TrEMBL record:
GO terms for cellular component: succinate-CoA ligase complex. It comes from Thermoplasma volcanium (strain ATCC 51530 / DSM 4299 / JCM 9571 / NBRC 15438 / GSS1). GO terms for biological process: succinyl-CoA metabolic process; tricarboxylic acid cycle. NCBIfam families: PRK00696.1, sucCoAbeta. This is Succinyl-CoA synthetase beta subunit. Keywords: ATP-binding, Ligase, Magnesium, Metal-binding, Nucleotide-binding. It comes from the Archaea. Pfam families: ATP-grasp_2, Ligase_CoA. The keyword Nucleotide-binding applies. Its cofactor is Mg(2+).
């Protein structure tokens, strides 16, 4: 098992199909373990961590978006002063609106040619797919289709060298490069399977001046459903607020927004629909909180605790009960109101299992409850 690493789960309004997206330097750590050649390098989070300059280096901001180079997120240094300036500059700025908290310093490569290679989950085929091109160094979406090699890999058979030979021939690789390429493909597939990946990508895969193939970049995306098999990863997102990190620690999908209506709903789709409906009625959501499927009063109480900490002017609860029972949620709301002495308006929509019982519990405790979403939305936008 590898030592703990900091990673990010990509998130915003889209909580479906979540993935564990690793920084470049983490991907390269994994590549090294599997024997894929990568440049020598090290990571720093402070200018004081920079080692003594010995040779020209690339200084690369560690963010989870592409296009770093065009956005000024990659710099090159040929002197000690240039290295220190590059590190200080990148660590004190944002690249593509992403906070740079770490930079990767690695040997500058003598690039002769750039290739592209990846293994990605093809959802339609329910199988991994090899994608390769002799036109690396650019977004694969911008490469003409006739310049891209694609081949489905039967997961019951796994990767075979004949697939790699087809790709090598398609790309026009000479024999010595082809031999290295096949070795890298085999190891890349091992990474894909061994690390529960949805995507492993090298762009560019560089041919150096002395005829070596080296992974100049690394993108590794792990299926979030497999996190339980990867306890070596600790979750940390520099873009998250302290309250979002607190919610994450408690197991809630939570995003702070800039409005004034706190939102609690169950299921990512319903929560997102609730935000859209509020905006349609000129309401401004203060947060996104997905309660999930639960039949636990304490989970409801803790959700209120988080939303109240965001200091909204009103709270909207939108529940469509299936696994989540409406009377349980209602009891949690009542107990939360008493525990936290809630003075701001609370409007609730309850529909589904035990909805009649749930709405009666709320109404008996002076909390407005509706059976449909839109009347609740309309009401909460007018209560303050």
């Amino acid at each position: 098992m590898r030592v703990a690493k900091n990673v990010i789960i990509t998130s915003c309004y889209n909580w479906s199909g979540g993935v564990l997206n690793l920084y470049e330097y983490m991907g390269k750590d994994i590549f090294r373990e599997y024997g894929i050649p990568v440049p020598n390098g090290y990571v720093v989070s402070s200018p004081q961590d920079v080692k003594k300059f010995t040779n020209p280096v690339a200084v690369k901001s560690q963010i989870l978006l592409g296009g770093r180079g065009k956005a000024g997120g990659i710099k090159f240094a040929k002197t000690d002063e240039e290295l220190k300036n590059a590190v200080s500059t990148l660590l004190s700025t944002k690249v593509r609106n992403m906070t740079v908290t770490k930079v990767l310093i690695e040997d500058m490569l003598n690039i002769k040619h750039e290739y592209y290679v990846s293994i990605a989950l093809n959802r339609a085929a329910k199988s991994p797919m090899l994608i390769a091109s002799a036109m690396g160094g650019m977004e694969i979406e911008n490469v003409p289709d006739d310049k891209i090699f694609k081949r489905i890999i039967d997961p019951s058979l796994g990767y075979s060298d004949f697939i790699g030979r087809e790709a090598s021939q398609f790309m026009g690789l000479p024999p010595e490069l082809s031999k290295q390429f096949l070795d890298i493909l085999k190891k890349l597939y091992n990474v894909y399977r061994g690390e529960d990946c949805e995507l492993v990508e090298i762009n560019p895969l560089v041919e150096t001046g002395d005829g070596k193939l080296i992974a100049a970049d690394a993108k590794v995306v792990i299926d979030s459903d497999a996190i339980y098999r990867h306890r070596e990863f600790s979750i940390q997102d520099p873009e998250k607020t302290p309250l979002e990190l607190k919610a994450e620690g408690k197991g809630y999908a939570f995003v702070e927004l800039d409005g004034d209506i706190g939102v609690i709903a169950n299921g990512a789709g319903l929560t997102m629909a609730t935000l859209d409906a509020l905006l349609l009625h000129k309401g401004k959501p203060r947060n996104f909180l997905d309660l999930g499927g639960t039949d636990n009063v304490d989970i409801v109480i803790n959700a209120f605790d988080l939303v109240l900490e965001a200091k909204p002017k009103a709270i909207l609860v939108n529940i469509f009960g299936g696994v989540t029972k409406c009377d349980t949620v209602a009891q949690g709301i009542v107990e939360a109101k008493k525990k936290f002495d809630i003075k701001i308006p609370v409007v609730v929509r309850l529909s589904g299992v035990h909805e009649v019982e749930g709405r009666k519990i709320l109404q008996d405790n002076g909390i407005e409850a509706f059976s449909e979403m839109m009347p609740a939305i309309e009401r909460v936008t007018k209560v303050f």
